[in-house]
Please model this.
Amino acid sequence: MRLLPGLALFLCIMAIPRAAFADGGQERTHFGHDIVVGPNEQVGDVICFGCTIRVHGHVTGDAVTFGGAIVVEDDGQIAGDATTFGGGLRLGKGVTVAGDVTVFGGGIRRDPAATVHGDVTVFSGRIWLFLIFGLPFVLLGSFIALIVWFVRRLLRPAVPATV
Model:
């Protein structure tokens, strides 16, 4: 139950709109609802938690999703990197990504006319999500359990020998 207040504080801090700290509101960060960059629109970094990023215009920075997809269509452009954790990436006809493309735990669909100037890295399958996010928690939990076992063993009262 001690985890609940810490989790609530973390979620409150993460809910502060990132656009309040951005230059001219050019960056977009959303939680749970999709981000759409229109055909004549130009934005900076685009970050989405639990939602999809749809790009029809120009992203001058990076596009990142956690638990969502990135869809770039209609000659859309991403000047930075495109990264998805737990989601897929779709690059349509005439699309340009100037940076790297990285997909963890999802797939990539790429039109032959789409251009990626950087490296393309795909870790498809859900096992990568477990290795990146779950395994550290398993190791941390095991380490804590070992410490608790060791402390309990040290604090256990000695039983006198019977004669």
Remarks:
- The chain is about 25% helix and 30% strand.
- The mean pLDDT is 82.
